[in-house]
Amino acid sequence: MRLVRAGLYLVQAIVVGVVITVTAMPATGEVTARLGGADVAIATVHAGWAAVVLLALGGLVDVAVARIDPLATRARLVTWIGWSQLSGVAVFLIAQLNGITELTTLVALYALTAGAVMMLALDGALVAPRMAGPDLEPAPAHTPASTHTPAPTPAPTSAHASDAPTAPRGIRGLRRPAALAAVIGIVPWGLIAFAQIGGGIVGDPVGVWTRVVTLVVLALSIAVSFRGWFRPADADAPGILPLLATSALAWGVVAALG
């Protein structure tokens, strides 16, 4: 399955690259920084080629994870690291498409998004072992009924209650790292929404395709968070959602700028 997804990533990267070349797609815009009291253009970003790089990166991540699939912990970690970079750069590009060009803001949005995803990776590492419950003692070998009857195990006293096997299962609900990931991860999208609404208020609204790709990628990002919440032990917790989100971004950029 991972190799199939990797193939879909890489085929799309090639096709989008060809479309960009044939249509002579222009660069998205400039990245600015406030230096000496003035806004200075320090770089130009081409969202189309950036999307091609993201597609290629997604394919490479799936290929890498497919090679270490038997090691579930490592597979999960590589999967979440890959999605953290894909989502961070995707939010960077979507923010720029929505009119945010200041470098420090763009980098902050990238860092918040990537950090929120890595909190999901931490959630899997901390919560998944506890979801299986306490380890049970192996069943004793069968003995004839005539042998002695074992004495009942005394219930733990209050002094030893904290040492009960169920104690490690304490990371639940809003105390889970995934809950913190949701709080952090929604901040960049709030800023993007503010920029999108603000552009409409001052008479400089973004295009329809920019609105569509923003909402689609937001919805898929939320779905990844929910999937990670309910399946923290899954080495492929994000599933096919990163492929859908990256593909939507790439083809949305082509539609908006092509």
User: In percent terms, what proportion of residues is strand?
Assistant: 5-15%
Order of strands, widest sheet: 1-2
| Shape field | globular
Assembly state (oligomeric):
single chain
Unreliable residue stretches = 132-147, 158-170
> Can you summarize the main beta sheet?
2 strands, antiparallel
Secondary-structure element order, N to C:
HEEHHHHHH
Count of alpha/pi helices: 7
Helix content: 55-70%
Number of strands: 2
What Rg, in angstroms, do the CA atoms define?
A: 24 Å
Summarize model confidence as the mean pLDDT.
82
Structural class determined from secondary elements: mainly alpha
Distance between the termini: 32 Å
Q: What can you see in these coordinates?
A:
With 258 residues, the protein is mostly helical. It is 63% helix and 6% strand. The chain is built from 7 helices and 2 strands; from the N terminus they run H-E-E-H-H-H-H-H-H. It has helices at residues 2-23, 47-67, 72-97, 103-131, 177-201, 208-230, 241-257; strands at residues 29-35, 38-45. It has a two-stranded antiparallel ribbon with strand order 1-2. Strand 1 and strand 2 form a beta hairpin. Helix 1 packs antiparallel against helix 2, helix 3 (72-97) runs antiparallel to helix 4 (103-131) and helix 5 (177-201) packs antiparallel against helix 6. The model is unreliable at 132-147 and 158-170 (pLDDT under 50).
